[in-house]
Amino acid sequence: MDVTDTASWVVLGRSAGDAVAVHLDADGAEVRRERIALTALPGRVREIEASAAPRWVWGDTPGWYEPLLAAGVRVARCHDLRLAHAILRWAASVDSAAEVRRSTAWDAAPAVESGPATATLFDLDDEASADGPPSDIAAAESEFVRQRDAVASSTEPSRLRLLLAAESAGALIASEMRAAGLPWDAAEHDRILTRTLGERSAGGTPAHVAAAAARVRAALGDPSLSIDSQPKLLRALHRAGVLVESTSRWELAEQRHPVIEPLLEYKKLARLQSANGWAWLAEWVHDGRFRPVYVPGGVVTGRWASSGGGALQLPRQLRAAVRADEGWTLVVADVAQLEPRVLAAMSSDSALVAAARGRDLYAGIVEGGAIADRADAKIAMLGAMYGATSGQSGRLVPRLRRAYPRAMGLVDEAARIGEDGGVVSTWLGRSSPPPSDGWREMQSRASQVETTSADVDRARRHARDRGRFTRNFVVQGTAAEWALCWLAELRTRLAALPPVSASPAVHSGPAFARHPHVAFFLHDEVIVHTPREHADAAARAVTDAAAQAARILFGDFPIDFPLDIRIDATASKG
DNA sequence: TAGCATTGCGCG
DNA sequence: AAAGCGCGCAATGCTA
Q1: What backbone torsions phi and psi does residue A522 show, to the nearest 5 degrees?
Q2: Protein-contacted positions of strand B (CB under 7 Å)
Q3: Looking at the predicted structure, is the pLDDT value of residue A121 above 50?
Q4: Domains along chain A with CATH numbers
Q5: What are the beta bridge partners of residue A34?
Q6: Residues in domain DNA-directed DNA polymerase family A palm (predicted)?
Q7: What is the edge-to-edge ordering of all strands in the sheet holding A78-80?
Q8: Nucleotide lying nearest to A313, CA to C1' measure
Q9: What is the spatial distance, in angstroms and rounded to an integer, between the CA atom of A271 and the C1' atom of B9?
Q10: Amino acid A233: pLDDT
C-alpha cells in the first residue's frame, strides 16, 4: 500500500510468443526493456522482485499472477490495468476529456475460468482470447500512459492513486487465496450433512429430507406432489386452504396449518442439499481445500463478487467444516458495524462518532437517546443506509435524521443526486455508473406535456430506485475501500513475519501458503490460516492492519473500527 | 435442447 | 412478500 514511495515500475506484456518487461523509473520514463521467454518468466520475475521490488504493471492479475504463483513466485505489488481502467473510466474526479475514457478495449471482463479448474501456464493466445483485456506489451504500455495521465488530471490524484493501489493489492490477494484455498474438513462437512439431512439411501434422497417431504404431502393430501416446483406447491397449498401469494418462508411462517412446520423444515433441508450438499463437496473441495474464484471489483460499488462455488454465501451451518491443518490454526476476524462507522467518518458527524466510540455502535445510539433499544437502532440505521421509506424501519429513520443530521444528510444527498440522474462517488473516488439511456428517456418522457400519470408514476418509481442505489453506493463502496486497505495491510504484515521454524506439514498449496496467509475474505471478515506458533502475531497483524486502514482513509479523524477476533481451529460461530 | 426468466434463499 | 442496498446459485418452466 505504499503509494507515495519512489518505487519503479515494470510493465509486462506479450510480444510474438514471448514476454516483454519494460522497466520504468518512478516518473514513468523508460529505463530499459527486455524480452523473456515465457518459460523463463517466473525465474526472471523472481530476480527482479528480489532486487528492485517494482510495482508490476500488467493487463490483468489472474492471467499473469496465477501462473507465477503456480511456479512458486510471489510479488509484493502490482498495478492491474483492467481494474484501474474500470475505475478511471467513470471516475468523476478525472477530466472528462481524458483519453482513458475512450480505450474501450480495456472495458473487458476478467480472463478467468469460473470453474474449479486449475490455472494454466500462460496459455492465452497471442491474439487475445475470447475475453479478458489486451495482453500485448504495446497495448499495456499505452494504456498505462493513459491511466497516469488520467490520474494526473484528477482533482483528487492522491485518493485515486490510493484506490488503484488498494484495488490492485486486492487482485493479488484474490489470486493468492484461490491458490492457497480455504482449509476445509470434508469429513466434518459430511458429518454435518448426514446429521442434518439423514443417511443417503439408494433412492438418492437422504432420509430426513424424504421424511419431511412425506409429511408435507400427507398434510396437503397430495401423495405425488413435486414440492420443488413453486407453481405446483402453490396450487396444492391453495387447495388445502392455505391462501398465500407466494411460497416464501417469510409468508408461510405467518400461516397456521399443519403443513407449515414440515414444509419449512423441508425447504431448509432441500436448500442445504442443493446448495452445499455432497455434490458441492465433490466439486469444490479437493485435497482439503475449498478454492472459490473471487472476482475483485466484481460489484459496481467495488465489493468483490465470486464466480463458482458460492464463496460469498457459505451458510453458517457449514462453518464448522472450515478447519485449520494439523499444527495450524485460524485467526477469524470481522469488523463490527463497518458501514455506519464509515458513514460517521465520511460525514464527520460527531454525534455518530460518539455513538461509535465503544465496541457496539448500536448500543451507542441507544445511549445517545435517539432510539430506545438496540434492535430498533440497528433496523433504523440499516434503513437509513438502504433508503427505507415504510414499515418499522421507515418510521424510525426520522429519529436518526434528527440525532445525526450530518451523517443522514450525506446519504440523503447521495439519494437526491441519484434521483436526479447524477453520479456519486466513494471516499477514494470510485464513481457510480451514470443512468442508462432507458432511464433518462423515461424521466424526460414523464416531464413532457403529453404524458400519462402512469408514465409519471413509473418514472418516479425508477428515480427512487436509483436514489436508493446511489444512497447505498457511497457507504457500501467506501466500506469496500476500507476493507481493501485492511486486506492489503494485513498481507504485507503477514509476509513480514519471520519464517516458520519447524514448518508444520501443510498438505496442499503453493510455497507462500507455508507461511501465515489470508485464506478467506468476505466484505468485512477475514480468516488467516497460520502455524500455531505465529497465531498471536497474526492476530496482532489483523488488528494493526485495521488501525492502519482507518489511518489511510481517514487520517487522524477519531473513528475506531473494532474487530471481533478469535483464534480457533475452526471458523464456526458461537 | 439450449438459453432465458422467475422464484426463493444463502451471504454481507 | 419484504418494508430497504449489493450479490450468486439451483431448480423449474417457458420459449426459441
Answers
A1: -145, 85
A2: 7-12
A3: no
A4: 1-155 (no CATH), 186-283 (1.20.1060), 338-479 (1.10.150.20)
A5: A21
A6: 315-534
A7: A30-37, A18-24, A9-15, A55-58, A78-80
A8: B11
A9: 8
A10: 97
Closest-approach nucleotide to residue A301, Cα vs C1': C6
Triad A132, A136, A137: Cα angle to 5°: 130
**Nucleotide B10 C1' to residue A386 CA (A):** 20
Considering only residues A116 and A264, tell me which one the structure prediction assigns the higher pLDDT: A264
Phi, psi of A35, rounded to the nearest 5 degrees: -95, 135
What's the pLDDT score for residue A202? Answer: 77
- Residues paired with A32 in a beta bridge: A23
Tens digits of per-residue pLDDT, A208-260? 999 999 999 999 999 999 999 999 999 999 999 999 999 999 999 999 999 99
CA–C1' distance A301–C2 (Å)?
Answer: 23
For residue A425, CA distances in Å to A86, A180, A430, A549 come to 14, 34, 5, 19
Query: What is the rounded CA–CA span in Å between residue A470 and residue A466?
Result: 6
Structure confidence by residue, pLDDT tens digits, A435-450: 999 999 999 999 998 8
Helix pair angle (A137-153, A157-180), 10° resolution: 140
What the block records as the C-alpha cell of A87 is: 475505475
A314 CA: nearest nucleotide by C1': B11
Q: What is the mean pLDDT of chain A?
A: 93
How many beta carbons lie within 10 A of that of residue A59, not counting itself?
A: 29
User: How many Å does it take to go from CA A305 to C1' B11?
Assistant: 11
CA angle in degrees (0–180, nearest 5) for A295-A301-A304? 20
Report the alpha-carbon distance of residue A269 to residue A202 in Å, rounded: 18
Q: 10 Å Cβ neighbour count for A284?
A: 20
